[in-house]
Amino acid sequence: MGVVLGVDIGGSATKIVGFSPRYEPVGELIVKATDQVTSMYGAIGHFSQKFGVPLHNIKKILLTGVGATFSDEDIFGISTEKVDEFIATGYGGLHLAAMAEAFVVSMGTGTAFVRASKSGMTHIGGSGVGGGTLLGLSSIMLNRGNIDAVRALAENGNTENVDLLVKDIIAYEIPLLPAGLTASNFGNVRGAASEADIAAGILNMVFQTIGMLSVFASINDTIKTFILTGTLTEFPQAKDIFETIGVIHDVKFIIPHNAVFATAIGAAVSYIESL
Q: What CATH number is attached to the domain comprising 221?
């Protein structure tokens, strides 16, 4: 039986994964290109060459992501279908975390929140705060528009040099409000703040905003577990920031292995599970 490809076509990169119909992974890769159609074809061609999968051995291609709207035909003559991005996100998150239900938080250019369960996937909303926010603010404030450069810079930053903390505005600790909790992002910018401090502050603001929106999404729900996916999960600061929010608000955040490829994985998995 042939290989099934899940292809997530984003604004600046295409993520592709391959599975055998028995869930055996074939491989995954990311191809960056400014043109989404070029990125899509390039990713599939590169995947075929890198993992030794001839095009005639590919049974099905499942496209998802914003760039999927630019393609309305079979790719390389291979049967091709589109999968709703939110459905793919939900399937991918549950598959990677081996869970039956959870909120899946897709941190891309913006952020999408999907209530995922075996009974169905529901897009409950989203936020414009995400990777695009991180890069936009970094370009303006630090003259850096490369996500890898910002990530490296932030690792040496101290958010206390830019953020106003609870301990800065109260005389004694209040229950459920730890002294080290952020009271105002960038509310305490000091003249001595370095570029690294600013980078860490931007990252902290983006992650804290996504974390709190996640908490709000679960207030009236029985599900209290969040599976984090997307490129921002690769930032080393993500684990600690989300863990802190989870402890304070009694919810759980999970960053599974291969979280960057969750939506592409979900596109393939949604098809395989329908067989």
A: 3.30.420.40
